[in-house]
Design brief:
27% of the residues lie in helices and 38% in strands. It is of the alpha+beta class. Strands 1, 2, 3, 4, 5 and 6 form a six-stranded mixed beta sheet that branches. The protein starts with a helix and ends with a strand. This is DUF3168 domain-containing protein. It comes from Saccharomonospora cyanea NA-134.
Length: 119
Amino acid sequence: MNDATTEARRRLETVLKGVDGVRYYDDPAGAADPPATVLSLPALERESGCPQWTTATFSVWVLHALDERAVERLPELATRVADALDELPEAVVTRATAMPFRAGTQELPSYEIEVEVAL
């Protein structure tokens, strides 16, 4: 990653680590103890004729335990995380999609939140 992308990731990590009651993990392939967030590597885009990346789109996975409360609590948890990410002036939350997330040996209920960051 270039310096701008690395800095964008660092800022997102700082926000995610600050969400009260939610653990942050930086390894999408590792085990996670929900409630938790996991930050992916970004998809990178550049405008025509521009020699550098101009936008990074990160996936933030919001994980909940596999229990009877997941359907009720996961949307609220995803909203809290999205609201925290929206506080970054250079970041825009574009969508949240419900889907399972494989954490270690288990599949957890989750939302994938897409966050675009201008570089």
